[in-house]
Amino acid sequence: MTGRSVGDVSPLSIHFDAPLPLRSGASLPAYDLMVETYGQLNADRSNAVLVCHALNASHHVAGTYAGQAKSEGWWDNLIGPGKALDTDRFFVIGVNNLGSCFGSTGPMHVNPATGRAWGADFPVVTVQDWVDSQARLVERLGINKLAAVLGGSLGGMQALDWALRYPERVEHCIAIATAPNLSAQNIAFNEVARRAIVTDPDFHGGHFYEHGVVPKRGLRVARMIGHITYLSDDVMAEKFGRELKTGALGYSTQDIEFQIESYLRYQGDKFSDYFDANTYLLITRALDYFDPALEHGGDLTRAFATARAKFLVASFTTDWRFSPDRSREIVKALLDNRLDVTYAEIDAPHGHDAFLLDDPRYHGVLGAYFERIANGLTKPALQIKGVGRAPGRSQAGPHPLGGSLDVPVERGAGGSV
User: Fold this and answer.
1) pLDDT digits (tens, 9 = 90+) for 63-100
2) Which of 59, 62, 133, 216 could cross-link to 96 by cystine, CB 3.0-4.6 Å?
3) Quick check: is 153 catalytic?
């Protein structure tokens, strides 16, 4: 997708004094959310798009940090002036979820009740809790209704929850490479990863901060397990096959023999240098718990009966973590409720990670859909100091209040791309 970068951006920490009730019955006291924004809010505040992140991502969705090499946002190929999500037309909000390790209140922060880091005492959070905190953020920004909520994978689950529980505040829901709940196999992958972390001798029951150590061995294995599920067999075969690390067998049970082993160890090492172990446990549990049909006797159609948004649901043929069948379950439930649905099943070789990559057909679908949304916006930009773009580029800042379509498309009542 053509377009420009939003340029250098700066995150903003927004504080909330009111406690946040959680699904577990616990309550989180005053907390902070890390936020980045791109583009300008229009006069009637109708062009805001909220981007929800997946497991190891953050509020840093687009742009770069001045003086930091390789600091592009995790969805920088999608968001910016002239890109599929065009910041010349939309005001885009990236937010870091509670419990994460990128600035929003989480296990690494101080528990006001003890004066020590929360650690394992940080309350369990759910997708619903995250969406409730995001709704408070959107309200703080003075936005009554979002033009769209967008997310891939776990982010897609948050987008769906927005449409289910805040139907009057979402015009469009865009859910990519996601599922209405985790399969038993996916829960199993998460559990193996969690056990790798909690059985690391450096974990110390989740209070490893006090010991000055990090359970890196567990984090490495957890990431290696997860990374396998993000790639397709075709991509692994193409990139690595059975290629040897040194060109000859070393006849060792301990050393690296194959290139795929080297790649997974590299991914594990990198992950263990920046991600928090308690955050990993919290976020994978939130994945496990998401199941909107549970409160409706397992009936997903009944769960979506409250939704009023227009939907774009997209999946990828080689994604075996969240397969197209799971997206079709969502589409069927939406169609059963006679909602406006566009479904794109994109033939891409990259597996689950395809939602993060710059595939021209995929970005073509998103670009066409956002064009549809933009065409419904008529108000000029609202000039607000600190929110709008600097001359010639988009830029993040504080709010004053604190390809082609050659893919299968299924259409519901009322619209399509």
Assistant:
1) 999 999 999 999 999 999 999 999 999 999 999 999 99
2) 59
3) yes
Catalytic residue among 53, 60, 352, 363: 352
Element (H, E) at 220: helix 216-230
d(CA 397, CA 410): 38
Architecture per CATH, domain 12-181+292-411, reads as 3-Layer(aba) Sandwich (3.40)
Task: Give the active site residue among 86, 161, 319, 353.
Answer: 319
pLDDT band, residue 413 (cuts 50/70/90) = very low
Is residue 388 very low, low, confident or very high in pLDDT (cuts 50, 70, 90)?
very low
pTM: 0.90
Residue spans per domain, the chain:
12-181+292-411, 188-284
Q: Is 352 an annotated catalytic residue?
A: yes
Q: Cβ(354)–Cβ(316) under 8 Å?
A: yes
Residue from 5, 100, 104, 153 carrying the catalytic annotation: 153
* Fold that domain 188-284 belongs to in CATH: Rna Polymerase Sigma Factor; Chain: A (1.10.1740)
In one letter, which amino acid is 202? Answer: D
Tokens of 51: 């981007």
| Beta carbons within 10 angstroms of residue 259's beta carbon | 16
